[in-house]
Design goal:
The complex is a heterodimer of chains A (128) and B (290). Chain A is 59% helix and 8% strand. Chain A has five helices and three strands, in the order αβααββαα. In chain A, strand 2 and strand 3 form a beta hairpin. The termini of chain A are far apart. The chains are: A mainly alpha (128), B alpha/beta (290). Chain B: Keywords: ATP-binding, Nucleotide-binding, Transport.
Chain lengths: 128, 290
C-alpha cells in the first residue's frame, strides 16, 4: 500500500521525524485505522527514495510511542490509539501547518496584524 | 556475528593505476552502492572481493574467511554479477541453470523461474544468440536464483529497458525482505541508488571512501537561495555559487550562522539532489566530511 507521505526538501526537520509525524497525522485523521498494514521498511525506503536506516528509525520511534506494532513474519500494523491521543495529535498537526504558513508569511514580510486579517478573511470565505 | 564482508588496508596497483581501501565493513541486511566515474576501479574492487584479481596487500574476508585462503567454501555464499557473461556463449539458459543449481546449495528454483517469466527470458536459446540486454537479464536471473547471502552486482541495470529495470528492483527488494541478505551494487543510475541504497561508497582518485549513510550525506549539504548577492566571494561552508545568489554549502549550520549574523535574508533553502552531490564528489573532488 502507498502511504500519502510527502517529504519536504526545504524543511530543516530530520527526515525520520517528518515520516513519524506524517504517519501520526494519518492515524489521527483516521486515514489509517487500527490494524491497517504499513508498507515494509524496504518498500517505503524505495518509494520515498531514502535509506532503510531512516525508515527503521521512524518505525522504531512510532512503535515505542505505541502507534504501530510489528509482529514477526507478519509485518507492521497500526496499533490501537485512544481518542484523547488522536485529538492531541490532530492539534499538533494543525499547529505544525499554521507554523509553516506563518513562516511563509514572514518570508513575504507580513506583520502579525496582516496575518490575522488574512486568516479571518479566509475563515469568513469558508463560512459562505 | 560474522560480517558478510570486511576489507582492511587493501592496495592494488595495475600499471600506473592504484586502488586503495582503508577499512570497510558491510553489515547484514544492507544495500551499499559503489559510485565512481568510468575507469575509477569499481570492477577491480569487485574482482578483488571474488579473488579474481589478487590485492598487493591487505585483507578481504567474506563471512570471516579470507578470500585468498585455501578454503573456498565462501564462494557458495556469494553471487557475483560481472558486467559481461563470460564463457557461456555455447550454452542455453536451461543448461546454465542446471549448473548453478548444482553449484549453489541455496539455489531457489521457484525464484529463478518467476524472475525469468516476469522478464521474459528465453531459456532454450544459446547465450550467443541473445541480445546484450537479454544476456544481462539472464545473467541476473542466474545470480538472483543463487539466493546467496551476499550479492555483488556490477552495473546490473546498464543495458536494461525501463519495465525490466522496475521488475528487477522489485525482485531485489523482495530478496531483502528476509533481512539476512547483503547487496553491493555498482551503478551509474542515480535512480537505482536513490531507490535501493542505504550506504554509499565513493571511489575518488583511486581511493575508496568510508561508508556513508545516504540520508546523512544528503542532509550534510544544503542549498540556500539568498535575496541578495553576499558581499564576500566565499562565505563559511560555501562550496559552490550559481546565479550569484545560490549557495551550496557543506556546512549548513556554519553557513546559516553567518547569514543570520550578517543579516543576509534567505529566500528559500533546500537539500540538494543526490545527483548534485555525486557530481560535486566525483567531478569537483568535494571532500566528504560526514
Amino acid at each position: 500500500m502507498n502511504l500519502p507521505i510527502r517529504l519536504s526538501k526545504s524543511s530543516r526537520e530530520p527526515i525520520y521525524h517528518q515520516i513519524e509525524n506524517q504517519i501520526k497525522a494519518l492515524i489521527a485523521s483516521g486515514q489509517l485505522s487500527t490494524g491497517d498494514p504499513l508498507p515494509s521498511i524496504r518498500l517505503l525506503a524505495k518509494e520515498l527514495e531514502i535509506s532503510s536506516i531512516t525508515i527503521r528509525r521512524a518505525y522504531q520511534n512510532l512503535e515505542f510511542g505505541g502507534f504501530i506494532q510489528t509482529s514477526q513474519g507478519k509485518g507492521t500494523f497500526v496499533a490501537e490509539v485512544d481518542a484523547d491521543m488522536k485529538t492531541t495529535m490532530a492539534n499538533q498537526a494543525v499547529e505544525e501547518s499554521i507554523r509553516k504558513a506563518i513562516s511563509t508569511a514572514r518570508q513575504h514580510e507580513l506583520s502579525d496584524i496582516e496575518i490575522i486579517h488574512l486568516v479571518e478573511a479566509l475563515l469568513k470565505k469558508e463560512e459562505n | 556475528m560474522t560480517l558478510p564482508l570486511t576489507i582492511r588496508n587493501v592496495e592494488k596497483s595495475i600499471d600506473d593505476f592504484k586502488l586503495k581501501i582503508n577499512e570497510l565493513s558491510f553489515e547484514e541486511g544492507t544495500i551499499t552502492a559503489v559510485i565512481g566515474t568510468n575507469g575509477a576501479g569499481k570492477s577491480t574492487f569487485f574482482k578483488m572481493m571474488m579473488n579474481l584479481v589478487k590485492q598487493d596487500s591487505g585483507d578481504i574476508d567474506v563471512f570471516g574467511k579470507s578470500v585468498n585462503g585455501e578454503d573456498e567454501s565462501w564462494k557458495q555464499l556469494v553471487a557475483y554479477q560481472a558486467q559481461t557473461l563470460i564463457g557461456c556463449d555455447p550454452f542455453t539458459g536451461e543448461q546454465l541453470r542446471k549448473l548453478m543449481a548444482e553449484l549453489y546449495p541455496s539455489w531457489d528454483e521457484q525464484l529463478f523461474r518467476r524472475f525469468c517469466e516476469k522478464l521474459r527470458i528465453p531459456l532454450n536459446k544459446k547465450v550467443h544468440k541473445l541480445s546484450p540486454g537479454v544476456r544481462t537479464k539472464l545473467n541476473l536471473a542466474l545470480n538472483i536464483g543463487k539466493n546467496t547471502s551476499l550479492l555483488i552486482l556490477d552495473e546490473p541495470t546498464a543495458a536494461m529497458d525501463i519495465p525490466s529495470r522496475n521488475d528487477f528492483l522489485q525482485f531485489l527488494l523482495e530478496l531483502m525482505e528476509s533481512g539476512d541478505k547483503t547487496i553491493l551494487i555498482a551503478s551509474h543510475q542515480a535512480d537505482d541508488i536513490k531507490k535501493l541504497a542505504d550506504y554509499l561508497v565513493f571511489i575518488q582518485n583511486g581511493e575508496v571512501t568510508k561508508m556513508l549513510e545516504k540520508d546523512s550525506l544528503i542532509f550534510s549539504y544544503r542549498l540556500f537561495w539568498l535575496k541578495e548577492e553576499p558581499p564576500v566571494s566565499r562565505i563559511p561552508g560555501e562550496i559552490k555559487r550559481t546565479y550569484k545568489k545560490v549557495i551550496l554549502s557543506n556546512q549548513p549550520d556554519k553557513t546559516l550562522d553567518y547569514l543570520t549574523t550578517h543579516n543576509l535574508a534567505i529566500a528559500d533553502e533546500q537539500i540538494p539532489t543526490l545527483e548534485d552531490i555525486i557530481h560535486e564528489v566525483l567531478m569537483e573532488g568535494e571532500m566528504i566530511n560526514v
